[in-house]
Specification:
The protein is an alpha/beta fold and 314 residues long. Helices cover 38% and strands 17% of the residues. The protein has a domain of 194 residues: Rossmann fold. Strands 3-2-1-4-5-6-11 form a 7-stranded parallel beta sheet, with helices on both faces. Strand 2, helix 2 and strand 3 form a beta-alpha-beta unit. Helix 1 packs across helix 8, helix 3 crosses helix 5 and helix 7 runs parallel beside helix 9. Nicotinamide-adenine-dinucleotide (NAD) binds next to helix 1, helix 5, strand 5 and strand 7.
């Protein structure tokens, strides 16, 4: 992939997390110097096992809310990938302040340091949670945002900060609204990680549990596609300042997903357990991806079957 001329050092916040650690590995493969910043609250050093062996990688253990730490991490960085966040919808309903502190105040801090350090681009990780229960499917970026949780609201606020900085300073801040990302290293303790939860149960010979009738749909995007889109957002010569949906554009029902996993994991029981729908779960979510295709010149490559096969292999 083409990198902008002179691009040598990048900062990844949330580097020890699921998505961040894959991004770090990919950036190191492109011969960049990578600084990772993470407080290891949900991320782990084991996610960074490959990166740690690389002399071009430095991990700074610290908090994005701590100005000095972010300044140290941002030193010499030409691009910042900002992924660090708390990400659990249910927890955000119980503790909205924590979500504001980390996802909004923390983001403000990272953006402010990036401006001071004259970083040229900051890629912000937003989420489909900004839409809430969308009035239109597939979801176009332009529809009014209606987050149903403090987590979603914190991402709306993060996007707003990106717009503000792009207007006032020389920092381009594209925002990628990730849909349901899956792949190796995805933890099983986050309610959003249905594929990793299903795979975990399937391997243990436990029946898959579906909340609701199973016809609800999601847009599952494989981690390698996500990483490629992030790198494009950082390296293409021009980039949209508008938020970009990062999904596949394909709706998959939870029932179809369960059947795919039953097909691919021999120890998975045939029976599916149905439970009452969880409050707050939205019914349909799938991205309209025209903007992704037009502005990042990118169409995700992995169909669900292939992405699951790679995850199972891992
Ligand atoms: P993750 O929890 O694995 O990664 C988040 C990382 O941020 C963790 O390593 C955690 O330790 C770190 N972190 C949290 N608070 C921090 C703080 N105060 N200071 C420094 N580091 C901190 O989750 P993920 O799934 O890899 O998510 C990465 C980003 O992608 C998040 O911004 C999330 O909101 C966004 N996102 C993820 C998905 C998905 O499907 N996984 C979907 C939409 C958006």
């Amino acid at each position: 992939m083409m990198t902008r001329q002179g691009l040598q050092t990048v900062l990844v916040t949330g580097a020890a997390g699921f998505i961040g650690s894959h991004l770090v590995d990919a950036l190191l493969r492109q011969n960049l110097r990578v600084v990772g910043l993470d407080n290891l609250s949900t991320g782990t050093k084991s996610n960074l096992a490959t990166a740690m062996e690389h002399e071009a990688f430095t991990l700074i253990e610290g908090d994005i809310r701590d100005r000095e730490t972010v300044e140290q991490a941002c030193d010499k960085a030409e691009v910042v990938f900002h992924l660090a966040a708390v990400t659990k919808v249910a927890e955000s309903l119980r503790d909205p302040q924590k979500y504001h502190d980390i996802n909004v105040t923390g983001t403000q801090n990272v953006i402010s340091v990036a401006v001071n350090k004259q970083v040229s681009r900051l890629v912000f990780t937003s989420s489909a949670a900004v839409y809430g229960a969308p009035a239109k499917i597939p979801i176009p970026e332009e529809i009014p945002l209606n987050p149903l949780s403090p987590y979603g609201a914190s991402k709306v606020e993060g996007e707003r900060l990106c717009h503000e900085v792009a207007d006032q300073h020389n920092l381009q801040a594209p925002q990628l609204r990730c849909f349901n990302v899956y792949g190796p290293r995805q933890p099983i303790d986050n309610e959003a990680g249905v594929i990793s939860i299903f795979l975990h149960r399937a391997r243990q010979g436990l029946p898959l549990v579906i909340y609701g009738d199973g016809h609800q749909t999601r847009d599952f995007i494989y981690i390698e596609d996500v990483v490629e889109a992030f790198i494009r957002a950082a390296t293409l010569d021009t980039v949209s300042t508008q938020p970009i949906n990062l999904g596949t554009g394909t709706a998959v029902s939870i029932r179809e997903l369960a059947e795919e996993i039953q097909d691919q994991v021999p120890s998975c029981p045939i029976d599916i357990q149905y439970e009452a729908p969880r409050t707050g779960d939205i019914y349909h979510s799938v991205a309209r991806i025209n903007r992704l295709q037009r502005t990042l010149d990118f169409t995700p490559r992995y169909a669900l079957r292939n992405g699951i096969a790679k995850t199972v292999e891992f």
